[in-house]
Write a structure and sequence with these properties.
This protein is an alpha/beta fold. It has seven helices and five strands, in the order βααβααβααβαβ. The two termini are 25 Å apart.
Length: 131
């Protein structure tokens, strides 16, 4: 079964039902068939900041429910070392390097994002699905 890692931005668009991006992302997910959608603790951290800061319990619950439906990938120490090299080599931001390496470490077939710059660092593995 294929595994697809979802970047935090895509989860935000899905959960908050972005009027332009939601239909595009949903269509891509449907086209996957039985692929497994994945995220990491870093995705959880990034997506829950706003609803927690705003004390928006309803939105927080929607995020928690959506995140629970995904396959949660661990982030062992080895990931941080590989992310360091990726960050140095391609001048990526720390979260971007951690997301990409976590997906690679867990044998995901693709890393879905809306950040076209990541493809220059990791090639076709990073797919800007909103392009």
């Amino acid at each position: 079964m294929d595994k697809i890692y979802l970047d935090s931005c895509l989860i935000i668009y899905l959960v908050e039902q972005h009027p332009v991006f939601l239909p595009i992302i949903k269509s891509r997910i449907v086209s996957l068939g039985d692929a497994e959608l994945c995220a990491s603790p870093l995705v959880r951290l990034e997506t829950l900041v706003k609803p927690m800061r705003d004390a928006d319990q309803a939105l927080l619950l929607r995020y928690e429910q959506f995140l629970a439906s995904l396959h949660n990938l661990s982030m062992p120490a080895e990931i941080y070392q590989k992310a360091l090299f990726l960050r140095v080599q391609h001048r990526l931001k720390t979260p971007d390097a951690l997301h990409v390496v976590t997906a690679q470490f867990h044998d995901c077939q693709q890393f879905w994002t809306n950040d076209g710059r990541l493809a220059s660092a990791v090639g076709a593995f990073a797919v800007n699905i909103l392009d």
